[in-house]
Amino acid sequence: MNSMTPSMDRLPGGPSGDPMAPLRREWHRFTPAQRLSRWLVWLVCVAAVVWALRSIDIIPEFLVDAPEQMADMLVRMWPPDLAHYYPEVHNALIETLHIATLGTVFCFVLAVPLALLAARNICTIKPLNAAAQLGLVASRSVNSLVWALLFVAIFGPGAAAGVFAIAFRSVGFVGKLLAEALEETNQGPREALRASGASWGAELLKGVWPQVQPAFWGIALFRWDINVRESAVLGLVGAGGIGLVLDDAINFFQWERVATVLLAILVVVLLAEIVVTRVRARLI
After folding, report:
1. Domain membership flag for residue 175
2. Which terminal residue of the chain, N or C, has fewer Cβ atoms less than 10 Å from its own Cβ?
3. Are 168 and 139 spatial neighbours (Cβ–Cβ below 8 Å)?
4. Would you call 151 exposed, middle or buried from its count of C-beta atoms within 10 A (0-12, 13-18, 19+)?
5. pLDDT at 16
6. Would you say residue 79 lies in a domain?
7. pLDDT (tens digit, 9 = 90+) per residue, 239-280?
8. Domain total in the chain
């Protein structure tokens, strides 16, 4: 917490016995130690940025040429090849939505038990809390593309790898938010149910679920919205969806088709955002 510390130096010419001297003291928002710490933090940040710029191999000629290359690419993309949309892009978009939806459902099958174990007011066994937290952190620490590469190696290229990649990537996000929502619930209803002889399952169903239900649906809709966007690029590593069509168009330099795919992804993401917003407004 910041503190206001007065300097003992008085204004020049002020008599030492002047009763108004305290009002003429110089007040500082931070102590000298706090000011030094703030400057050290800024110094570390600047040093980190300079170190990163010196370590990353950036070719200045490419940076200078980038605007011209971007303009040339945009010219090649215009006009989009809208005739390419159906059926190839359309079917790939539908598959992308299926991957996002099934991945989200499977994610909740895994995330709900982990969230119950991670919530300290639901599961009072500390080793289980730690194991659940470790599982949630492990899920969040691996990017969806990395999960996709792993599951492509297991299941082979296709939508199945995408579904499992989306699910395992989402478990950490969903489980952490659900565990926090569970820990913030009021324990009064549970204690009343326990005093009346209700079982542990009845405590969760009648005392906990009504409190976390808004958070549950909000998290589900928000995660599905994120998964729609993430599943659009899983095809770049062979996990199905519209990313596969995009990768083929880029590899064959079919920039008009690339523009069509990008426009289709943009429209789907916007529609998903609208749907999620309206459904959430009705449910919560």
Report:
1. yes
2. N
3. yes
4. buried
5. 54
6. no
7. 888 888 888 888 888 889 889 999 988 988 888 888 888 888
8. 1
